[in-house]
Amino acid sequence: xxxxxxxxxxxxxxxxxxxxxxxxxxxxxxxxxxxxxxxxxxxxxxxxxxxxxxxxxxxxxxxxxxxxxxxxxxxxxxxxxxxxxxxxxxxxxxxxxxxxxxxxxxxxxxxxxxxxxxxxxxxxxxxxxxxxxxxxxxxxxxxxxxxxxxxxxxxxxxxxxxxxxxxxxxxxxxxxxxxxxxxxxxxxxxxxxxxxxxxxxxxxxxxxxxxxxxxxxxxxxxxxxxxxxxxxxxxxxxxxxxxxxxxxxxxxxxxxxxxxxxxxxxxxxxxxxxxxxxxxxxxxxxxxxxx
Amino acid sequence: xxxxxxxxxxxxxxxxxxxxxxxxxxxxxxxxxxxxxxxxxxxxxxxxxxxxxxxxxxxxxxxxxxxxxxxxxxxxxxxxxxxxxxxxxxxxxxxxxxxxxxxxxxxxxxxxxxxxxxxxxxxxxxxxxxxxxxxxxxxxxxxxxxxxxxxxxxxxxxxxxxxxxxxxxxxxxxxxxxxxxxxxxxxxxxxxxxxxxxxxxxxxxxxxxxxxxxxxxxxxxxxxxxxxxxxxxxxxxxxxxxxxxxxxxxxxxxxxxxxxxxxxxxxxxxxxxxxxxxxxxxxxxxxxxxxxxxxxxxxxxxxxxxxxxxxxxxxxxxxxxxxxxxxxxxxxxxxxxxxxxxxxxxxxxxxxxxxxxxxxxxxxxxxxxxxxxxxxxxxxxxxxxxxxxxxxxxxxxxxxxxxxxxxxxxxxxxxxxxxxxxxxxxxxxxx
Lengths: 291, 431
Prior knowledge:
The complex is a heterodimer. Chain A is mostly helical.
């Protein structure tokens, strides 16, 4: 009875958080799921996005949501640079090499942030985060609602772009068979670079959405980076929509599961779901079995 | 391929260096200083006891201090040092101790237990200090206290809170701050005295710190006849506490006790407002709920208003000199003093009192004088000093409430600067 009364609130909370998880997952899905690069630096990219937003808000008074228009392109360029200078060299190397390199990259980014901003935690306060919408006994933070809406819009937009545009076709072709794609006249180097840039831009956008409702410090991305892998595999490797749904599933599982087992084991619930999916549907919830 | 892998190896080396650079520089200064001392400690182990007697004092009285000036806890070591510095100036300006000026020999333990041990060894064997003060963390303080005990040097603990520091049977260890278990008992005593809740919810982070405070709190509450209707641990750093808070809210407790650090405390209070959760009292067991940032905009800001917390010291407490110390500290360092600075300031006044009563720098005489300490509430800015047989000072803990964005001491009555505002206004009643 008591649990039933809490159900609507937890459902809404989980769904709203899921929107943000989805965006984090989609960014990694492009790099890991589509380009097959094990990117352990995704959490650090998220952190870079958060600090970029923080700087825009504090130094230029730019709204954190409007700031996406600046931070996402900036991270897109940074991501392309990182791909060209660093990632490009291990694009076809073993996963172990990729892990070593991206962990190193993550360490470099985190330590740079620590140098620039110290380890102190920071917060961006907006009027959105102070505004609460109450509806039928369910309370929603306006910032969460906006973040959710923006995350859904970006995810849908990205999906349409990948399915309809010339670049989307090239990207999907490259992920299916890099050599065949090359033979068909696709500039594989550019596709890989752009995809990585897109992945980082999405992490930047997710960081911007997270900033008004959370706090930031240099290692803030670690936990989210780890969860992003769960989302991608949960949704099914190679599927952008799958990763988005994986993110929502994970957030809902955490939010609803803790009603039963307690908040303490919240993070465990996500991984239990993950293991169950791997056991019974190894291709992921929304993925097709791979050859 | 070879070109690629060579580049990769180079890059990894650079990244590793970048990653480790911070840690390496932090350890070196104290590490090199204390290694020399431990090498020669065996030869001069008996030098300490052959110190001067009351008749011939040295020109300057040296006092041993261990704290964390570098490393992860450097921020607190700095707070320690500032408290010592102000007290040292005051004491020496007023004529010193036994007619001699005091001098501090400060050893940096770089926030590491092994360095704290070698620092204690160095002070015990290579100097004639009558006693040692130290350190910051419990992890560093316990082995340093054990080392000092081994060499029979009196050891004063100003800050470290782990209960076991006074539990290992030493006659030489004296602690002026309250152990961590006191936070729980203070919160429950306050609730029983001022609120008399029928039901209590305890929300704690599921770490050693959280459980070691929450478990005794539950026990004490039940002994006092309060029903604990919710006892909820959480994984720290969660972005969304709403499921937790709505579960607790559904139990409708009179009072809520938090054991949380700053980041979680901030989100918990913010989301408690969003869920319109209105117990009669929000109280924190220190930590995040008594951190200066908590009441400011970068913390919970106005959501922190009316929350109570158990704490060791406040700038507005009625102990003599506390307000003057806070003003002097603020003027000199541009920040409000944390309790760490008050503790070391008071510790040095304790040293003055002890040495004057001992009348000599003999370590045994100093130990006996320490054990016989009986300083009234206005003797130090940290309140009264009197040690039990374990060397634990009966420090009176305080309860603060956030009123108009400031921590105000509201309990116990004799040290209070204002009355508590009870019950807590509901979120919709607030401006």
